Amino acid sequence: MTTSSAEVAALSVLPQGQAPDVNQARVYGQTNAPVQTYQIIDTYSHDTNDYTEGLFIHDGYLYEATGEFGKSRLKKSNLTTGEVICESRLDVRYFGEGATAFEDKVYRLTYLSTIGFIYRDDTLKLEGTFRYPGQGWGLTTDGNC
Question: Which CATH number fits domain 50-145: 2.40.50.140, 3.40.50.300, 3.40.50.10240, 2.40.10.480?
């Protein structure tokens, strides 16, 4: 297994009504776009052989959705050791894309197939599928849906 350090960054979260300490930057012609600062809080080993499409931490575990036809899988790993706890592979006809956790499920997209997959977050056992229009790339949640 090839590993490298993956950096985990945390943005400062301030109480409501308190202004963040931001720098100004030129972004797409804008002159006053705020840039949040961050602090590296830890680094972890990570297998660099996979084609990472989605990476997130949920309930203290690292989840990684990888891509490429014939190589796409969803992995749940021990955050500190990198040991893979469980994984689920996609059929060779699917190119896996982004994923996110919501409640006790992990939702995963595919690139061109217009089909998504739903897994249990503890075992990564496939529980269902869903359809969406267009290409699948990234997926996230705001914690409410």
Answer: 2.40.10.480
pTM for the whole thing? Answer: 0.72
Contact criterion met (CB below 8 Å) for 120 and 104: yes
**How many CB atoms sit inside 10 A of residue 31's CB?**
8
Sign of CA pseudo-dihedral 83, 116, 55, 61: negative
Asked whether 109 and 97 are in contact (CB, 8 A), the reply is yes
Q: Which of 144, 55, 126 is nearest to 87 (CA)?
A: 126
What the block records as the tokens of 80 is 């500190």
CATH 2.40.10.480: which residues of the chain?
Answer: 50-145
pLDDT digits (tens, 9 = 90+) for 21-49: 444 444 555 666 677 788 888 887 777 88
